[in-house]
Amino acid sequence: MSRHTPITAVVTGASSGIGLAVARAFLRRGDRVVGNGRDQARLEAAARTLDAGERFVPVAGDIADPATSARIFDVAESRFGRVEVLVNNAGIFRSKAITEYTDADLDALIDTNLRGFVHATKRAAQHMTAHGGGHVVNVTASIALQPLANVPAALPILIKGGLHAATKALALELAPKKILVSAVAPGIVDTPLYAPEMHDFLRTLQPLGRIASADEIAEAVLHLASATFTTGVVLPVDGGMSAGRW
Ligand SMILES: NC(=O)c1ccc[n+]([C@@H]2O[C@H](COP(=O)([O-])OP(=O)(O)OC[C@H]3O[C@@H](n4cnc5c(N)ncnc54)[C@H](OP(=O)(O)O)[C@@H]3O)[C@@H](O)[C@H]2O)c1
User: Which residues' Cβ are closer than 6 Å to ligand 1?
Assistant: First the structure.
């Protein structure tokens, strides 16, 4: 087997949950990671657990602000020269009846889940076009592929479903630039997004009868980030949750 040539990955939302597991998986492979999150202290705590020295560079800032993506790519370029992979992972989830969503919920979901995606992807497309290609992997949500009656979440689904459509559109748009764009759609994952007391209910939502680990999602992200002929796919990693009725 040929040796892996280290690459540089930008991971948004790298201080917790799936993003932290993705960062760890790249670092274990010998890669470099520029990790983002809003809170500097949480990012520094993540850096300590990752223990990767100068191969992990934290860049704090709200991904909804275009200046954050600009800083991430500037730092990445000055430290490592080139970014081969962007993982659009930062995201929030709010489950409510449509009548209960507030304007603040709507703003928060649009800011992180939509604006953050747009700003980071624009930067990546510019950078990767100038450097001969790359990969963008979006972390979406399986519930946007098949909504669940007992988990009302129309607003997050609206945005994550839009990201599924954008994944395919961007795969076509950016293919001539050799930029491959795909998505991983997790089911229910063991991260701080869900309180442990919800786990008994949450595991009933997936046919395989358990909750995914963040490492299982990271494995799929790395797979798509290394693909040479797969682009425009939305890969559910959801224990069968979106496969149909059960
Ligand atoms: N956990 C699940 O079951 C599940 C299921 C389906 C999809 N997903 C998706 O997976 C992704 C990661 O979720 P997770 O469960 O790992 O969540 P998490 O443990 O809450 O981690 C979210 C990460 O994103 C960062 N973040 C949040 N808002 C941000 C912003 N505006 N700018 C920059 N960073 C921001 C957080 O750090 P700060 O708070 O310090 O900014 C943290 O590092 C999300 O897109 C989520 O929708 C998760």
Answer: 12-19, 36-39, 42, 62-64, 89-93, 112, 116, 139, 141, 186, 188-189, 191-194
CATH code at 107? 3.40.50.720
**Domain assignment of residue 197, yes or no:** yes
Q: Which residues pair with 37 in a beta bridge?
A: 60
Ligand 1 centroid to Cα of residue 166, in Å, is 19
Q: In terms of residue numbers, what domain contains 187?
A: 8-237
Whether residue 1 has pLDDT greater than 70: no
Instruction: Choose the residue to mutate in 11, 15, 24, 86 for probing ligand 1, maximizing ligand atoms within 8 Å of C-beta.
Output: 15
- Find out whether 40 and 58 touch, Cβ atoms under 8 Å: yes
For residues 35 and 45, give the distance between their C-alpha atoms in angstroms, rounded to a whole number: 12
CA of 74 to the centre of ligand 1 (A): 23
Q: Is the pLDDT of residue 221 over 70?
A: yes
Whether residue 57 contacts residue 76, with contact meaning beta carbons closer than 8 Å, is answered with yes
What's the CA-to-centroid distance between 112 and ligand 1, angstroms?
A: 9
* pTM of the complete model beyond 0.90: yes
Query: Is the pLDDT confidence value at 193 over 90?
Result: no
Asked if the structure places residue 2 within a domain, the reply is no
What local confidence, expressed as pLDDT, does residue 225 receive?
98
d(CA 63, CA 76): 15
Tally of residues, the chain: 246
